[in-house]
Structures are given as structure tokens and as C-alpha cells.
Amino acid sequence: MDIDIFESHLSLLFRDFPRSDLYDGSEFSSLFANVNGLSSPAVLAVLSAAAHALDSSEIYLEAGSYAGLSAIAAAMNNSARLVLVDNFSMIGDEELRNNLKEYDMDERTRLIHGSAPDSLNELEANERVGVFYYDAAHDSASTLLSLRGVRRYLSSNALIVVDDFDSPSVRIAVEIFLSENSQANLIYSIDGSDRGNSGWWYGLAVILWDSVCT
Ligand SMILES: C[S@@+](CC[C@H](N)C(=O)[O-])C[C@H]1O[C@@H](n2cnc3c(N)ncnc32)[C@H](O)[C@@H]1O
Q1: How far apart are CA 35 and CA 159, in angstroms?
Q2: Residue ranges of domains in the chain
């Protein structure tokens, strides 16, 4: 993952990142009209910028995909390979499968049925993670164990994006993870609706993982 490409995509998409207003949110808005989801156009735009920064050997890994809104937004207009982990406790997998097919992403997607963090162990040796988006269970233990669990699969440079950062349980997990790993730096901490910032869903943490920083 190339951090300069990520930053330059952010500046193409946002008028004044991390403010949430986009130059043209129509693509993400039309996704909302077509795919059920729990997110906001600004969050989707960050995921898109992150996936554009992947190199061809890396994957976009997501825990908590629901019907596919965030994954499809990330993979639009690029060739990112997707690995999606969900225990389908909220809806079954049929809607996700249909949506991936409709957006012609099914053949570059691997679905893992199961719970994070345990199912993160099902990544394969050739699946180096350039972007990890965590949007599954938002309790501290699941969040922290998932962040810890993904470390061994991360590329030497990777982005970790954690949703629902307004939630105290998520915030605690991220803070512990950052304190444990000098390779991890919080590059953006974005408040969401619970903190009076409505464009950002329930807040976002963007962590840069740089294995050289030990
Ligand atoms: C907030 S929704 C994800 C929303 C999605 N990212 C989007 O853009 O619409 C959370 C998802 O996480 C899944 N989930 C909840 N706990 C989980 C766990 N421990 N492991 C894996 N998936 C989980 C649910 O089944 C649900 O699909």
C-alpha cells in the first residue's frame, strides 16, 4: 500500500479532508440507493482511496461486510482483490453474493463465513493485507483481538481503518493496540454522529502500519 497514493486520492475526493464534504458524492450516493448498508458516503470514499493505494500483490480485507456496501465502494474503479469475513448474524449471505455479482466483483472476492477474530486465521499465505477495514463486532475484545490477529498478515505498509470509533469500546481497543505496536500510527481520528459530526457515520480511525517503525 502506497500512502502517497492514498493521500492523493483523498485530496481528489474531498474538498478539505477530514471534513466530510466530497467534490462529487454521486457515485457513492447511487451505491446507497442500490445496496443496503450501514455507512456514509465519506466513509465509503476513504475506503475507496485506501483500495486504490493497494499494490497488485495485496488484498483488501474486511471484517463485517453485511450486504457489501463498504466492500463494493472500496473496489469500484480498481482491481482490488477482496477477502470478506462475516458471521452473517444480521442477514444471510445471499444479498451480499447477489450484490457482488451485480457489480461484477464476485470473481475477485473470497468470502469467509465466520467470526472475527477467529476466522482471520483463514487467510492464505499469498494473501498479504494492504488494507484492513474492521466493521464487525464493536466490543473491545473482538476489536482488539481482530487488530492483533491481522498483524501477521499485514503488508510492510498497510492501512487499518476501524469503523464506529465514537464508541468507547472501540476507542479503548484502538488505544491499546496503538500502545502495544510502535509500527501502528493513528493518522486520522475522525469523530462521527455521536460526537456531533454527522457526515462520518459513527466515527473512523485510520491507522498506518509501517513495519519499519519498530
Ligand atoms: C455494521 S454491519 C457492517 C456494515 C457494512 N460494512 C456496510 O458497509 O454496510 C456489521 C456486520 O458485521 C457482522 N458481524 C457482527 N459480529 C461479527 C463477528 N464477530 N465476526 C464477523 N462478522 C460479524 C454482522 O453480521 C454484520 O454483517
Answers
A1: 25
A2: 3-210
Fold classification of 3-210 is Rossmann fold (3.40.50)
HEC string for 106-127 = HHHEEEEECCCCHHHHHCCCCC
d(C-alpha 106, C-alpha 213), whole Å: 36
Q: Which residue puts its alpha carbon closest to atom 14 of ligand 1?
A: 136
65 lines ligand 1 (CB under 6 A): yes
Distance 62 CA to ligand 1 centre (A): 9
Question: 67: CA distance to ligand 1 center in Å?
Answer: 9
> Could you tell me if the CB of 39 is within 6 A of ligand 1?
yes
pTM for the whole structure = 0.97
Question: Is the Cβ atom of 162 under 6 angstroms away from ligand 1?
Answer: no
- pLDDT tens across 37-87, in order? 999 999 999 999 999 999 999 999 999 999 999 999 999 999 999 999 999
